[in-house]
Amino acid sequence: MEIEFNGKIVLVTGASRGIGAATARLFAESGATVIVHYNKNKQAAESTLTSLAGNGHSIFQANMASVDDLKMMTQGIITKYGRLDILVNNAGIYEEHDMVQMPFDEYLEYWYETIRVNLTGPAILSNLVAREMMKSGGGRIVNVTSRGAFRGEPTAWAYGASKAGLNSAGQSMAKSLAKYGIYVFTLAPGFVETDMAGPCLTGEKRMEIESQTPLNRLAQPDEIGRAILLLAANGNEYMTGCVLDMNGASYLRT
Question: Which one, of 98, 88, 76, lies nearest residue 34 by Cα?
Fold first, then answer.
């Protein structure tokens, strides 16, 4: 199996930082033309863009909670490049709260926004992209979820639920889309050293998280990115529908 993407058009959502930025760089180093998606931080997205090897890359803005934004981004990509070969659904939000102590209206807002961004947005974008992939003979979709989908998130109910939902949605997509040559894979990481996880990665909390794995450390964004490239590469079509754990043996399931 060759891990190369020469001539492939790849959209990585949430690519202004963290796992998305690392994944965008790795795809570019492997020959792909990369679309860097961002929501708010254009400066960070431009920084990712300038760090990419090769040429022809671009950035697109879209709010993952906005159907209109996702439609415009998809059409903009097709207008610019003619097709899209690989979609990486990486963008997401994570917040911790005491779910029964926070004001109820705030809880509702937190719940709905997290589900919109982490589950509904990727499901809508995957549908839009799959319609285009069908026209060009197929493609690949890689969803980035979380070990929290399996072990529970006591201070982030909506996050755990959204990632569990995306695991299931990816499996449904895999069964539905295989006949069109579209293969769908899911990667479920544990804690990764990113800005989004930053508030949870200080002091004793960090030490406790690190101690959950026999490696006694957090994953690095490049490690997750390399696994995403592995899933997106040609030659592993029979893995379609998989949910691949990548948590440093911090949470094992059978």
Answer: 88
**For the segment 23-75, what is each residue's pLDDT rounded down to a tens digit?**
999 999 999 999 999 999 999 999 999 999 999 999 999 999 999 999 999 99
Q: Which of the residues are catalytic?
A: 159
Alpha helices in the chain (DSSP H): 18-29, 42-51, 67-81, 104-115, 121-136, 148-151, 157-177, 203-211, 221-232
Residue type, 101: Q
Q: Contacts by 56-64 with C-beta closer than 8 Å and gap 24+?
A: 57/28, 57/33, 59/35, 60/11, 60/35, 60/36, 61/37, 62/37, 63/39, 64/13, 64/39, 64/91, 64/116, 64/117, 64/121, 64/122, 64/125
CB hemisphere CA count around 95 (13 angstroms): 16
